[in-house]
Amino acid sequence: MAVEIKYGVIGSAKEVADLATALAESQSAKLVGIVGNSSTAAALVAQDPQIKVYPNEQALLQADLDVVYLAASQQSRFEIAKKALKNGKHLLLEGPLTRHFVGASELYRLAKQQKRLIVENQTPLFSPIVAKVKELLTDKQIGKIKFIDVKCFLPNIPNNFSDLSAGGGALFKGGPAVLGMIQTLTGNKIDNWNGFESNQVGQADMQCNLSLTAGKVLANVMITADFSIETNLTLYGTDGTIRLPEFNQQTDTAVLEKASGSQRFVIENQQGRLFYAVEHVNNCLQHQMAPSPLVSPELALNGIKVIDSMYQRWYGDPLN
Fold this sequence. Notes:
Elements: E1 5-10, H1 13-24, E2 29-35, H2 39-47, E3 52-54, H3 57-61, E4 67-70, H4 74-86, E5 90-94, H5 101-114, E6 118-121, H6 128-138, E7 145-153, H7 170-186, E8 190-198, E9 207-214, E10 217-224, E11 232-237, E12 240-245, E13 253-258, E14 261-266, H8 275-286, H9 297-315
Parallel strand pairs: 1-2, 1-4, 2-3, 4-5, 5-6, 7-10
Antiparallel strand pairs: 7-11, 8-9, 9-10, 11-12, 12-13, 13-14
GO molecular function: nucleotide binding; oxidoreductase activity
Family: Belongs to the Gfo/Idh/MocA family.
Domain Gfo/Idh/MocA-like oxidoreductase N-terminal: 5-118
């Protein structure tokens, strides 16, 4: 019997519940540790007494477990991540990794030194439908990609969304997954970018618009928490288009449009938001793959570089 991969979680009650749900469907991993008392933690321990509740992050990081799912606030995430790596833990982190490029680079250097895995949870990249879209692109179903249009609405924003020091802002919250998708689907790093933001005085951006290039592909990105828009990522090729609706919520659908007609691809019985990220981490560990082939250090760091540079341009240097 294969050895189960042991997970601990540092995050809110919702994130604890999300991880527990994902691991309940996994054949190769289990939840063994939670930081902090909550009704969610109590219910999980009642179901499985082997799960331990730890009083603080340091206690969990010193425990016998393999992976820490880190969804703590941005203000504390960097220091906790460093301690986790120094304690020999692999990391699955909610994105972005840190509030700044320098810190993210330091985490990847430390992970390499410690021979540990870091995976930034860019949710769409793990989705089966995105794997299907990559197949369609490899098969030249829309010819050569020329342009990508992204519109992304951020619902249910937290109370500190407008606080730059807490990692608030539309680009900061929505940018990592969007930039990761563009780089993944084009196979190119983002090499040129510019953009604008809209905000109240002294607050983080409630919406932003970026124009960028990834190789020879142009892209336009709009991310907003200010008003509701239909979330879509659309790839325009020489022979057609592919549209991913609600891509930032791990959509199960892609629509291919060509002169000959349209075709809809749907993943049946798709698992929850965190399941595929967890399975990717498990697969990497089982096959000794580090770094992640889906969210490589180069991909993640280039996205953070874009975000960091835009905030420096808009606000001075608020993220460092």
